[in-house]
Structures are given as structure tokens and as C-alpha cells.
Amino acid sequence: MSESTEEWLLMVDGAARGNPGEAGCGAVIVDERGRTVRELSRYLGRTTNNVAEYHGLLMGLDALLKMGRRNVRIQSDSELLVRQLTGRYRVRDEKLKPLFARAIELLGQLDSYRIVHVPREMNKPADRLANRGVDKGRKHR
Questions:
Q1: C-beta separation of 55 from 14 below 8 A
Q2: Which region, left, alpha or beta, applies to residue 68 given φ > 0 means left and ψ of -120 to 50 means alpha?
Q3: What is the model's pTM?
Q4: pLDDT tens-digit readout, 51-107
Q5: Which of 8, 130, 109, 116 is nearest to 65 (CA)?
Q6: DSSP state letter for 120
Q7: SS3 of 102, please?
Q8: Diameter of the chain by CA atoms?
Q9: Beta strands 36-47; 8-18: pairing state
């Protein structure tokens, strides 16, 4: 059961330098008072930007659920991700299908959620973390 019914914010992003290319993902979790409570980034290896976007979402949802949060507004600057998750676009890419299925599974564990598309400028914290994820991989070569 959720500790609070207050809505938290999850900002997600993915980045690929080249498409496909070296990729990373990022997520920022913000509480109901607007305080950043968690920042996450991960190196993904060589993949597409769309795959990286989904990994950012999955990483953020996993962290939120582990924190016991069940009410969330998710924002992304990926129109594809938002439109697929809201049912406006079908998922045709075979690489995205299992990621989409996992996202639906995790979203189903929430009490409530909204997924909104935002301009890139409003998603800069998640973008910064996604690029940090790419940089992590480059440092370890």
C-alpha cells in the first residue's frame, strides 16, 4: 500500500550518440513538494534512442515502486514513448515490444499515473542524466 496519495513526478529520458549508437538513460524522481529525491543514470551500450527512452522509463518506474510510491505523473520529451503508452501509436518495432510490455506491467502496479509529453527544455534534468549514462560507458573503455 502506498505511503501517500500525493502525486510524485518521474522525469525520464534516453540518449544515443548516433542512432544506433552509444546510449544511456536517465530518470529523476521528484516528491509532492517539488524536491528531487532520486537521480538515476545508466549506460546501455550501443542501441537506439527509442530503446534508451524506454530504459529510462523502466529504471524510473522500478525505483519508484521500490520506494513504495504508487501515484505518479510521468513526463518525457519522447513523443513516440508517450503516444505508445497512451495507446495513440502501436508498437511495431520488435526491439521495443518487450520494453513496452514491461512498462505496462510496471504501470499496472501503480494506483494512478499520468503520462505527459513535454518539450525538451522541461526535461533537462533527465536529459543530463541520460547523457551522464552515455559518458559512464565511454570512461570505462
A1: yes
A2: left
A3: 0.95
A4: 999 999 999 999 999 999 999 999 999 999 999 999 999 999 999 999 999 999 999
A5: 109
A6: G
A7: helix
A8: 44
A9: unpaired
